[in-house]
Amino acid sequence: MLYLSPVGEGILHFIMINIFKKRTNPSDQPEGFFYNYNWRKMKLITKRICMGKDIGIHGNVFGGILMSWIDESAAAFATEYCNTPNMVTLRVGELVFKKPLKSGNHIRVYGEVAHLGNTSIVLSIEARKFNVYSGEETVVCTTSITFVRIDEDGIPTPIGESVRRRHTELMVKETVVNE
What we know:
It is a single chain. By secondary structure, the chain is of the alpha+beta class. It has a single domain (25-178), classed as Roll (Thiol Ester Dehydrase, Chain A). The protein has helices at 6-19, 63-81, 161-178; strands at 43-49, 87-92, 96-97, 106-116, 120-130, 137-149. Strands 1, 2, 3, 4, 5 and 6 form a six-stranded antiparallel β-sheet that branches. A hairpin with a 6-residue loop joins strand 5 and strand 6 (137-149).
């Protein structure tokens, strides 16, 4: 059986309720510290074009290819956000493949910080199909990914204090903007 502290329960509740459930109406947003930012304003991390070499036996992009694109994009985001190249993937949450991707589709990967811990960062990630004619985006895959900062021996090490200050400032600014 898994036992969590009240903080751990709050984080788990946040992930389970919100990472995979898109909220389109601001009045649907639950109250609480982690919920005070706009889900629509995720940061664009990278862009890809689906190629023939990425296609599986059913004519869609192979799920493992999309998973690797997401992990690579999220790793780039985490290392930039935490100002260190020493970040490793600890956990990839459930990947929800919502729509198929075909050869020639343009993909955009978006992310945002869901939680900044002592040695880790949790990101919310969305892969979206981009229509070059209309500019419309359709969410095709969602997940959460946890990265841990490590030292040369692979031991978790604290994320820098300057990163924490900047993160706190960004959270306060987003809370003010969304109120």
